[in-house]
Amino acid sequence: MFRLVSTVIICSLFLVGQGSAQGRPIELGIDLGIEFDINDVGDETVTTTGISIPLTYLRVAFYASDQVWIEPQMTLLFLSTEGSSSTALNLVGGIGIDFLTDATRPRPYIRPFGGLFYVDSGDGDSATQVSLGSGIGVKVPMVERLASRLEGGVSYSFENDDFASGFDIHVTFGFSFFTK
User: What is the model's pTM?
Assistant: First the structure.
């Protein structure tokens, strides 16, 4: 697990350097969020609600053009109780498309994405689930190089031997800091 997180961090730092060399801004952000999960478990439909404050995702967006950006996101949860531990890692990769290019005005966007959820119970059992989805939102400038971001979206998590399939509806609110 440590190797995976280290690799993600090193690759992100490399990409940050590449984006800076190209003269495009890099967007660093954090989000808080509300998620509603609807899963089919056997003959039942199970609905859960999650609220993450202050952090649902840590994200970095690398602009490929004035309107298109690549955005990896990550959430890491580590729990330890009386000698046992568990880890959950959610990695999401998306491509954002701004409808407008003027950074001084609110910019609506769409962001299709794919995700990989990994959980390790700490006793040798681990599981992974894949998801696909899309979000639509708006970035609203607050002051120079700082914007608020509101997004709503839906994703579908695919069934496998360890997880049931299901839909996730999310609403996130966050802040974005732009390097340029």
Answer: 0.81
Parallel, antiparallel, or unpaired: how do β-strands 146-157 and 166-178 relate? antiparallel
**Please, what sign has the CA dihedral across residues 34, 37, 38, 43?**
negative
Contact 170, 135 (CB under 8 A): yes
Phi and psi of 4, rounded to 5°?
-65, -50
- The secondary structure element, H or E, covering residue 172 is strand 166-178
**What phi and psi, each to the nearest 5 degrees, are found at residue 66?**
-70, -20
Contact of 166 with 151, CB cutoff 8 Å: no
Provide the CA 152 distance to its chain's centre, in angstroms: 12
72-125 pLDDT per residue, tens: 999 998 888 878 888 999 999 999 999 999 989 999 999 999 999 999 988 888
